[in-house]
Design brief:
Elements: E1 3-10, E2 15-20, H1 26-39, E3 48-50, E4 54-61, E5 64-71, H2 76-93, H3 99-104, H4 106-116, E6 117-118, E7 121-122, H5 127-135, H6 139-178, H7 182-203, H8 210-217, H9 227-230, H10 244-255, E8 282-294, E9 300-313, E10 321-326, E11 334-337, H11 343-349, E12 351-352, E13 372-380, E14 389-398, E15 401-410, E16 416-424, E17 433-437, E18 440-444, E19 449-457, E20 463-471, E21 481-487, E22 495-501, E23 510-523
Parallel strand pairs: 8-23
Antiparallel strand pairs: 1-2, 1-5, 3-4, 4-5, 6-7, 8-9, 9-13, 10-12, 10-22, 11-13, 14-15, 15-20, 16-19, 16-21, 17-20, 18-19, 21-23
Helix pairs in contact: 2-4, 4-5, 6-7, 7-8
């Protein structure tokens, strides 16, 4: 198998990105890519074309073509597998699948292509591995920086301890020489304030030398102190929290896989990621929210999907439009249009337009994430085959310990992203001992929850396992298990096919965003 080039071209023949994997002249590759649009026929069921010297294997991606140019001796099954992997990578690096978005992320796409194909041969990698390789993070570099920062912090603490010892010896010397408090009020008060401030800084550092700083205050002279020595400076005081440097140090340790048992405030960014800003004149968002309750012994307690199609228009002149949509073959879904929509037009032609065609759709700023609701739908079922992700939990006790095996099984309907399985645990003094896991884990000591995260679930990892051990506990302590994930495909398979301008002219440029998210997904 030899892949000569991997390219992304427009349907008009314009080359957006092309990466060659063998030695070939620019004139030849340009000639091969220029000939491709002329060879595409209509009504064909296959997506490959053979000429005298090369074979074109291609896949449409909206208004573009993802194209592999191979020699005729290449294995077409392996070529199709390579093409399928590249088609998953392109949306990962270019959110907008148009000429502008592809050109903006051209170099990222070329780097990703290089990780998949080497010297014309496919590498045995997955989407998650390609993303990890392109990030180029170095474990050794992180460890070296952590060690250097730790040495710097320790040196600073030693300096502060020495300075406090010198100040304390000067104060004791002046007190023994003068036998009174006069020098304390004149020259020593400022040193005490500085020492107090240094103590505050040291107590918010890494923690080295805190006892020495506190001991330095236990030796202050008895009796009535002066006003300057009694009142600390405004705005200063003993800070008992961790500093920003310490938080960065702890976060770096967590990134290296260390378990840090501390109270951590929950971050909203973990559950929802901010949507990218709107750049297209018209944006249509297809969103489905999943509410599922699964029984721990098997079966579906409840399964409910609620979807919406919303419209966002940036410019007022683009408001006089109608939206042509295409629905999937799922007969269990019932659609309902907005009261201002023309219901007959949607029922016959699947076109979403206002009852009054002279009235434009409202416009909004790019920061308006809600948009205008055009269509909503709902699906309910008790069929377990419709569930995208099932969880099996098997706790077993042996002596003073409980062994827990948790397994996930994902259906082939969707590729799931950012999967997090949260397992409640009884109150523990230390983190559980995880012996085997497909993915990553994190223990939240504040809420006593073990989080199992998997970046991507696709055909390479439709099932996974996690095993851990905790002190003896009842089997009901591990429920309810909460799950959250996202997907770029939906149950309705609703797609926007066209934008129809009502006042003539060219239709405005539009983008479609599709996502499936979990609102409440539990195993009880």
């Amino acid at each position: 198998m030899v892949v000569l080039a991997a390219s992304i071209v427009g349907k008009s023949g314009k080359v957006l990105v092309s990466r060659q994997f063998v030695d070939m002249s620019r004139i030849r590759i340009e000639g091969l890519l220029a000939a491709f649009p002329k060879l595409i026929g209509t009504g064909k069921q296959h997506t490959y074309i053979e000429t005298e010297n090369v074979r074109y294997v291609y896949q449409p991606i909206e208004a573009l073509y993802l194209l592999l140019v191979t020699n005729k001796q290449s294995n077409i099954l392996e070529d199709l597998d390579t093409l399928r992997l590249l088609s998953k990578l392109v949306p990962e690096y270019s959110y907008s699948l148009d000429e502008e978005g592809i050109c903006r992320h051209a170099f990222e796409l070329i780097f990703a292509f290089d990780e998949v194909i080497s010297l014309g041969h496919k590498e045995n990698v997955t989407v998650a591995q390609v993303k990890q390789y392109c990030e180029m993070e170095s474990h050794e570099e992180k460890l070296h920086k952590l060690v250097m920062q730790s040495k710097i912090n320790e040196t600073k603490d030693v300096m502060k301890r020495k300075a406090n010892e010198i100040d304390k010896s000067k104060i004791e010397k002046n007190r023994s020489d003068k036998g009174g408090f006069g020098p304390l009020s004149s020259m020593g008060s400022g040193r005490i304030e500085n020492s107090f401030s240094d103590s505050s800084i040291s107590s918010t550092g890494t923690g080295f030398g805190l006892s020495t700083d506190v001991d330095s205050f236990s030796t202050k002279p008895k009796g009535r102190p002066t006003a300057s020595a009694a009142a600390p400076p405004k705005g200063l005081g003993m800070k008992l929290g961790k500093s920003q440097k310490t938080n960065q140090f702890l976060e770096s340790l967590k990134a290296e896989g260390e378990v840090i048992l501390e109270d951590v405030q929950p971050r909203l960014s973990q559950s929802r990621t901010a949507a990218p800003p709107l750049t297209d004149p018209v944006t249509l968002t297809v969103e489905e929210k999943l509410n599922v309750t699964l029984k721990r012994d098997g079966g579906v307690g409840s399964f409910d999907v609620q979807g919406t199609l919303s419209l966002q228009i940036l410019n007022q002149e683009d408001g006089h439009i109608q939206v042509q949509v295409q629905t999937g073959d799922n007969q269990a879904i019932s659609f309902k249009t907005h009261p201002n929509m023309n219901k007959e037009l949607f029922a016959h032609d699947y076109i979403l337009g206002l009852k009054d065609p002279n009235r434009p759709f409202p416009t909004g700023q790019a920061s308006d994430a809600a948009g205008v609701g055009l269509l909503k739908w709902r699906m309910q079922s008790t069929d377990e085959s419709m569930v995208p992700l099932t969880i099996n939990c098997w706790p077993s006790s042996s002596g003073n310990e409980t062994y827990v095996n948790i397994e996930y099984e994902a259906s082939s309907m969707f590729d799931l992203r950012n999967v997090v399985i949260s397992v409640p645990l009884p109150a523990l003094r230390e983190a559980p001992s995880v012996s085997q896991i497909d993915g990553e884990w994190r223990y939240d000591s504040r809420n006593s929850i073990l989080e199992w995260s998997v970046l991507l679930i696709d055909n390479s990892n439709r099932s996974g396992l996690m095993e851990f051990v905790i002190p003896q506990a009842d089997s009901s302590a591990f429920f309810p298990i909460s799950v959250r994930f996202a997907a770029t495909e939906t149950f309705s398979d609703l797609k926007v096919t066209n934008i129809i301008p009502l006042k003539g002219g060219n239709p405005p440029k539009f983008a479609q965003r599709t996502q499936l998210i979990t609102e409440n997904y539990q195993v009880v």
